[in-house]
Amino acid sequence: MxxxxxxxxxxxxxxxxxxxxxxxxxxxxxxxxxxVVAAVGNTYFASHFSLIVRVLLLVVLLIGAVAFAAxxxxxxxxxxxxxxxxxxxRKIIWPTRPEATQTTLIVLAMCxxxxxxxxxxxxxxxxxxxxxxxxxx
Length: 137
Hints:
mainly alpha; about 85% helix; 5 helices
């Protein structure tokens, strides 16, 4: 009983700020329409307006499309995910400069060692194949 109440309350919290399917669809249609207008308008008005005017209008239309997409249900989830990701990034203990340099040098040294070993094995195989193919029976 208690677990059912907890799961219901969690579902209510998740659906608290969500929009209906119709509103969500309308917002997506508006966002896509702004993107289409930006792309087609930029091409169509290339000879009528200067580049700076077209770029400014393109930026305004793209910001509008992103704003409409951001207030959809999926956009809200994406924003929430980005905020959570930033929070997790702050928790990471990043290596210091000497640690990063030392690790990089170790990786480079191992790459050189593996390259030399593979070159040696390849040379041995080539020499063996050359020896076997030059034999006259």
